[in-house]
């Protein structure tokens, strides 16, 4: 019993895995490994920060939105930091990640990712090692510690990235000034010329949120809940969730394979983070691993599985919401001035 063979069984030489992984030898190519491959010369890139002003005097007393248009003249984006400063006068509280209902990440007119507040919290804790406050990094598609897995905007200027924030209603937060700091990169003319003439496939880091409502009303209690992961369609390396008080075991079902009931105590970040290339940071966040390391291309391509479920056992209040953050990789394809994503 287990899911350790699912990635190999579902490998079909396409998608995020095939860019960096293989399961059979290709006799037409040189053997490359950590022992045999020589260092290669790479083109230099320029990096810097860009500040984008948001709304001045924003009030959350009524439903509010904030839209940021990221610079279209940069070639790549690896990080976006949200910050806000309370203005003078009444309502001196700052906006934190908890006040964000959702963030829609658009490339051109297409929504490529929807980020919830729990995604911000879990990914910042496990990847950056700190709990987000009024200044925090947004886990956009392509957020990475290096440019190799960043979002590549060059070659598709008409598809610039934008972020639409939807805030929760909070009566005591008024007169706030919002802004973004964006980590941008420029590439060489040689690379841009190559982009204009070729199809480029790159691996980018990404996450997706899956939310369900527990059956029943607030007076009801159920002993297990099932999260249908059918909407998750990325190459999955791990799943993050927050433990509720009475949660005891978790079971992941992928196709005809299943992990069996795993005690929650085995999934804590303090036990599972460091050797998985993550930070532990918070004892309330738990990890289900489906690859050798976080954001590995050896993850499981969920788009090729019909039966994908996560079952939690314990005691859950009817009507409450439970959500998980599914993390992994996608392929960003740039061709003919357009950008698309696939798993």
**What's the structural domain tally?**
2
Tell me the overall shape: globular
User: Which CATH class of the largest domain?
Assistant: Mainly Beta
Classification by helices and strands: mainly beta
Could you give the topology of this structure?
Layout: H1 6-9, H2 16-20, E1 46-53, E2 64-69, E3 76-86, E4 100-107, E5 110-115, H3 117-128, E6 136-137, E7 151-152, E8 161-167, E9 176-186, H4 189-197, E10 200-213, E11 221-228, E12 235-242, E13 249-254, E14 257-258, E15 262-263, H5 269-272, E16 285-289, E17 300-301, E18 308-317, E19 321-335, E20 338-342
Antiparallel strand pairs: 1-9, 2-8, 3-6, 3-7, 3-9, 4-5, 4-8, 10-19, 11-18, 12-16, 12-17, 12-19, 13-14, 13-15, 13-18, 19-20
Quick recap of the structure?
This protein is mainly beta.
């Amino acid at each position: 019993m287990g899911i350790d063979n699912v990635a190999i069984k579902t490998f079909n030489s396409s998608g995020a895995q095939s860019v960096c992984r293989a399961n059979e030898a290709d006799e037409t190519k040189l053997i490359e490994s950590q022992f045999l491959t020589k260092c290669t010369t790479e083109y230099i890139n320029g990096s810097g920060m860009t500040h984008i002003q948001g709304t001045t005097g924003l009030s959350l007393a009524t439903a509010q939105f904030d839209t940021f248009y990221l610079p279209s003249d940069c070639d790549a984006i690896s990080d976006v930091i949200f910050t806000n400063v309370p203005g003078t006068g009444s309502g001196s509280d700052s906006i934190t990640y908890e006040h964000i209902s959702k963030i829609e990440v658009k490339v051109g007119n297409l929504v490529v990712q929807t980020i919830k507040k729990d995604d911000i919290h879990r990914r910042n804790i496990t990847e950056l090692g700190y709990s987000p406050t009024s200044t925090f990094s947004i886990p956009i598609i392509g957020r990475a510690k290096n440019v190799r897995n960043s979002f590549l905007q060059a070659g598709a200027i008409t598809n610039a990235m934008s972020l639409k924030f939807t805030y929760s209603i909070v009566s005591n937060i008024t007169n706030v000034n919002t802004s973004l700091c964006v980590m941008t990169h420029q590439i060489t003319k040689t690379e841009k010329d190559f982009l204009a003439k070729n199809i480029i496939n790159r691996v980018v880091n990404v996450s997706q949120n899956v939310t369900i409502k527990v059956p029943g009303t607030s007076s009801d209690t159920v002993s297990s809940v099932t999260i249908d992961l059918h909407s998750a369609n990325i190459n999955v390396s791990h799943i993050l969730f927050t433990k509720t008080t009475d949660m005891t075991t978790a079971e992941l079902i992928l196709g005809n394979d299943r992990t069996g009931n795993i005690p929650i105590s085995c999934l804590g970040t303090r036990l599972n983070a460091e050797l998985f290339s993550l930070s532990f940071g918070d004892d309330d966040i738990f990890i289900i691993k489906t690859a050798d390391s976080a954001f590995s291309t050896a993850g499981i391509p969920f788009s090729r599985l019909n039966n994908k479920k996560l079952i939690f056992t314990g005691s859950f209040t009817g009507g409450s919401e439970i959500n998980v953050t599914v993390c992994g990789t996608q392929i960003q394809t740039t061709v003919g001035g357009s950008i698309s994503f696939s798993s």
